[in-house]
Write a structure and sequence with these properties.
- By secondary structure, this protein is an all-alpha fold.
- It starts with a helix and ends with a helix.
- The protein folds into 2 domains: 157 residues, no CATH class; 188 residues, Four Helix Bundle (Hemerythrin (Met), subunit A) (Up-down Bundle).
- The model has no long low-confidence stretch (mean pLDDT 82).
């Protein structure tokens, strides 16, 4: 009875809810440790350490380190700026306004964009809350933030550690799954004329967010912040190919939404439906392959679908403008070539190591 339960728990831990639960648990552990250590050292405001430990905690060690670095920089700029203006002008509205303005401006000017708001926040705290010595107060706030960051890094390293490579695989899998759903909506619109715009907009927001995560994770992987050996890492061509597939589907969406009639689109409905089925299947197969560490995937069906659709499409090259408006012909040709490109890029992804 124990083994099936452990197996089920391990499976659940790899799901979206399981990942969220592990992240919440790590944040809880880090906050308790940061608070306990700060109280043990008799620090006046241990909650600053708790805040830092929670805020900088991220899915991987590398991203936590980056967030921690940004928060430390923001705290340092804000603490120094607040202390300087508190000493020069005291605690008043003029000191507050000038300090917040300059710390935020300088953080952005020095390219610490993510730290800018925090710098302004810390400078305001120093000016409004210091007692006898602004410099001592600022130094203590810096130490509390540093403690929270160190605790977060240690917890992330030893408790449910997730390498950038494993997180990248999960991110790519989710991206391909969402792309498949978005692609299905677009193709359905091409054949039926109906479009679930609300669902499509939600998917586009989610895909954009995943693509941003993917870019950050690729940086970590390139910097070696992953436990995967080089020979098992995801081929870097996937970064380009996934991005291009996303752009192709957006082009398909635009094309079907601006069309004015669907007579021409029905001519290849059988072949395009077959290609759409195999394309969706390929996306889901690759989404599974990238998380299961399959090094090679074979999808001969998509090649057959591409060949059949292209062969049928070649018979349409003699379409005359008097039969169909030239704008509709161009729209349909754009849709077909873009749909074909999606299939070709999926083929490339199956032919390279994942």
């Amino acid at each position: 009875m124990v083994l099936p339960t452990l197996s089920n728990l391990k499976t659940w831990a790899s799901t979206s809810n399981g990942i969220l639960a592990k992240m919440a648990l790590k944040m809880a552990i880090a906050s308790v440790l940061a608070f306990a250590i700060a109280k043990w050292w008799h620090w006046e405001y241990p909650f600053y350490a708790v805040i830092a430990a929670i805020i900088v905690m991220s899915s991987t060690h590398g991203s936590t380190l980056l967030l921690g670095f940004q928060r430390l920089i923001g705290t340092a700029i804000g603490a120094i700026g607040g202390a300087i203006f508190a000493v020069m002008l005291g605690s008043n509205v003029w000191s507050l306004g000038l300090s917040v303005f300059l710390t935020i401006f300088l953080s952005n000017y020095w390219k610490f964009t993510e730290a800018a708001k925090l710098a302004g926040y810390i400078s305001a705290i120093v000016i409004l809350n210091y007692n006898a010595s602004p410099w001592l107060y600022a130094w203590r706030r810096f130490l509390e933030t540093l403690l929270g960051i160190v605790i977060a890094l240690l917890v992330n390293h030893f408790i449910f550690p997730t390498s950038a490579g494993a997180e990248l695989r999960r991110c790519l899998s989710q991206t391909l799954t969402h792309l498949e759903q978005f692609y299905a909506l677009v193709v359905d619109c091409a054949f039926t004329g109906s479009y679930d715009r609300a669902t499509a907009d939600e998917l586009k927001i989610s895909i954009n967010s995943l693509l941003q995560q993917k870019n950050e994770l690729w940086k970590e992987v390139r910097q070696g912040q992953t436990r995967e050996p080089v020979e098992t890492r995801i081929n870097e061509a996937w970064e380009f190919l996934v991005g291009r597939i996303w752009q192709h589907i957006l082009t398909m969406e635009h094309t079907v939404l601006v069309r004015e009639q669907d007579t021409l689109w029905q001519i290849l409905s059988i072949e395009l439906s077959q290609l759409a089925r195999e394309t969706r299947s390929a996306m889901l197969t690759l989404a599974d392959a990238v998380t299961s560490y399959k090094s090679h995937v074979f999808l001969p069906e998509i090649e057959v679908a591409l060949t059949d659709a292209t062969k049928r499409f070649n018979h349409l090259q003699q379409l005359k403008q008097e039969d169909y408006p030239i704008n509709e012909i161009l729209r349909f040709f754009t849709f077909f070539y873009t749909m074909e490109e999606v299939g070709r890029k999926l083929q490339r992804m199956t032919n390279i190591s994942s």
